[in-house]
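Q: I have 86 residues here and want to know how they pack in 3D. Can you give me a structure?
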Amino acid sequence: MMERKLLMQRLQACNSALNDAALFLDTRPDDPMALAYYEKHQALLMKTQQEYVSRWGPISRGDHMAGERWRWTDEPWPWHNSGEVS
């Protein structure tokens, strides 16, 4: 369970970094360091998301893989966790 939580925290950190970098790039679109930072975290996000989905199933409806059953509802919803606070 701890590994699952760590991957989710990494996903959240990558998303936060990407949002910040996107805001920065909105005002400085030609900054090569900012663009490299964004691309690095985008790749890390994709890798981490793929690992999470392959181990524990989808984290968004967009993670559905063609040909399988609809797994989006297999896991408990966040509010069904037993008092766990993330």
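Q: Anything worth noting?
A: The chain has a mean pLDDT of 83. The radius of gyration is 16 Å.
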